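Q: I'm writing up a methods section and want to include an example of the input and output format. Could you take the sequence below and give the corresponding predicted structure tokens, formatted cleanly so I can copy it straight into the document?
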Amino acid sequence: MKKILPVLALFLATFSFAQTPCVNGMAGQYPCSGLDLLSRISLGTFGSDRGNDSWGWTDPLDGKEYALMGLGNGTAFVDITDPVNPVYLGKLPTHTDPSSWRDIKVYNDHAFIVSEAGGHGMQVFDLTRLRSVSNAPETFTEDAHYNGFGNAHNIVINEETGYAYAVGTVSFNGGPHFVNIQDPINPVGEGGFSNDYYCHDAQVVIYDGPDSDYTGREIFFGSNEDRISIVDVTDKNNPIGISNGFYGSVDYTHQGWLTEDKRYFIIGDELDEANSGFNTRTIIFDVTDLDNPVVHFEYEATVAAIDHNGYVKGNEFYLASYRAGLRVFDISDVEGENMVETKFFDTYPSSNSARFDGAWSVYPFFASGNIVISDINSGLFIVRDPLLGVNENTISNFAITPNPATDVVEVFSKVDPISTIEIFNVLGQKVMALNFGDSLSEKINISNLQSGMYVMKINSTTTKGLLID
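A: Here is the clean output for your methods example:
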């Protein structure tokens, strides 16, 4: 049985379902750097012909992680706690018609879903129902519905206040439509802001940035087609426009996200690559003075793909870049006008051209380090930094061979005696722990371990990646 596993692994990798490490720039058929493919679920499995947005939920009771993916005909819910073996739990069908656009956010263990489909409104789904799915995949029903608007392009939620902001509706000139969701299954409309035209996407925060004039206020950062729009939405009865930010060669201001210190707002223009000939262009606004946002610098990538949804986590910017897949950037020196691509996973390997295929969105906020990519054409991808986020010590006195291994792996030391060896699976669980004397080489029987990626820790100091066929 062991002898056929490499062939089986190659077969599965070809169809993008299997755990596949990024080796020599490829994870199976997918170009990559610094990100391993843990698994993929196809659109066919979801019973849909197209994908769109994605978000995530972590169950506060047990820490289980769930991916939420928008589809043409509904929303899929997937348990990714074991990212190598995700479980498709079921789908909430669209409230009205199918649509290419669907957006999902989470508050208080509930998912809130909007769509461009006519009359769709906002669906509310109690995510705690996912704990008791007994016959997956199920067809779910919504737990509540808000009909204060029909179609909406997007939904934004401020989890600190319990307000949802539907944008791109026919109400309020396409500006944010305020919905109180503090009681999730009884959403209540509370007005909106119509003084800055159509809003495509936004982020809303309780402001704790450098501009002390607005400390503690609820501030809306909108991407409004040809500008960024900053609005004080603290008083829902009297929202106040603060300022607009403009930049050159504008085609369509699509979406943006704040750095964690609130000093910069990183945005993408969705049409400038196709219409104006840029490579993937990212515009970084300095928003240290909310009354006067200014362009800090622009970053242009080496590929021509169109940028779509991007999110900041720590000092990294995660960008779903359509045909170029997921691109990850180090933004630790954004103040010095530096932005460096460090990792990528290309879900659309045939081309990086400026067309509307490939990665629609990314969700990088799981504590485990699992990263969800939703792809228009190919479904749901789960990727992760290799070695469970622990950098392999390549300048080391230890070596392991063979790698990949099947039944036995041998560990060599040039200088230091081997005292302990621990092996961890992709979930971070210790699956083997061994103690030794003063030998410079040890053979380890791994025949009882399943095929996949592991981390070997030697003498509690050195980590090595191990692939078992």
